[in-house]
Known about the structure:
The chain contains eleven helices and 13 strands. By secondary structure, the protein is an alpha/beta fold. The protein folds into two domains: 3-163 and 197-220, 3-Layer(aba) Sandwich (Rossmann fold), CATH 3.40.50; 165-195 and 226-265 and 282-289, UDP-galactose 4-epimerase, domain 1, CATH 3.90.25. The strands form four sheets. A seven-stranded parallel β-sheet has the order 3-2-1-4-5-6-11, with helices on both faces. It has a two-stranded parallel sheet with strand order 7-10. Strands 8-13 form a two-stranded parallel sheet. Helix 1 (12-21) links the parallel strand 1 and strand 2 (26-31). 38% of the residues lie in helices and 18% in strands. It binds NADP nicotinamide-adenine-dinucleotide phosphate (NAP). Residues 7-8, 10-14, 31-33, 47-50, 70-74, 89, 111, 113, 160-163, 170 line the site of NADP nicotinamide-adenine-dinucleotide phosphate (NAP). The site of NADP nicotinamide-adenine-dinucleotide phosphate has 27 residues, from helix 1 and strand 5.
Amino acid sequence: MKKILITGGNGLLGQSLRLMLSKQYEIIATGLNSDRLKNHNHTYTSLDVSIMKDCENILVQFMPDVVINTAAITDVDYCELNKKKCLNINALSINTFLSYCKKYNKKFIHLSTDFLFDGKLGPYHENEECNPINYYGFSKMKAENLIINTKLKNFSIIRTCLVYGKKIDSNNIFMWVKKKLEKGEALNIVDDQYRTPTLYSDLSQAIFEIIKLDLKGIYNISGGEYLSIFDFVCKIVSIFDFDKSLVKRCNSDKINQKAQRPKKSGLLIDKAIKDFNYLPTKMEVYLKSIK
Ligand SMILES: NC(=O)c1ccc[n+]([C@@H]2O[C@H](COP(=O)([O-])OP(=O)(O)OC[C@H]3O[C@@H](n4cnc5c(N)ncnc54)[C@H](OP(=O)(O)O)[C@@H]3O)[C@@H](O)[C@H]2O)c1
């Protein structure tokens, strides 16, 4: 049975991957802190991906056939203020995994982002030029370059965008909006930033397919609907019958964020549709299903 090592195993995607992939593969999950996923029977071990020796020990001990790197600092404003740490964890830490995959001819799957782009002309295809406008995006671009320059025989870079879904211990946009509105708190939501929001389980299903079919190279995996963050939040409000007067429309200049965000970002998924019939769930269908 194929052995798969997952980093960032406590995260929104990491937890979902662990549940999905453990049906078919032997999973070694790792995360920075103690295990937050309940009711599973695979191995979990704490691992800080920035500690090279610890990564090497885990790799030698388990000899995984596939390494899926979901670990990252995903707080974009925190990255802007903590550049060295961000670069170290989001980019430089992958060197240990790259050396292992190159030496033993194993597959490396890395999670990346639409924040590689400046947001002038989105949504973007896989082959468009990167020009990040914040440090998080820069660190993710740096990681992609490290992978490409290593000339691994077998890697996949999976770019995704605004991952959401109902997960209690996650602070993704859906949970954030839901928690705030349930408490009756008002929200300022930008209407000049466009995305292709991605359901976390669509993303893990796509990674499952990429492993099964052993697909290589860069893949955009996101939702198929392109809309502003304001319109996305309005969909949640309408389906969950929240008080719509609590949601205030604003533009990016009006909210005080440390890091700039791309305006017209988001991803085009034609390649995934063509290569493995990727079929993202419609937002409305998912939101109604969890109401
Ligand atoms: N979420 C999005 O909207 C989005 C969009 C585009 C791309 N992505 C990319 O997709 C991937 C997964 O995202 P996600 O939403 O699942 O993120 P997430 O929920 O923030 O999870 C990231 C995980 O990384 C772990 N981590 C942080 N520092 C670490 C370190 N030094 N060593 C080991 N693990 C560390 C954290 O572990 P603990 O929980 O144990 O502290 C956390 O669980 C990331 O690479 C992200 O950049 C996400």
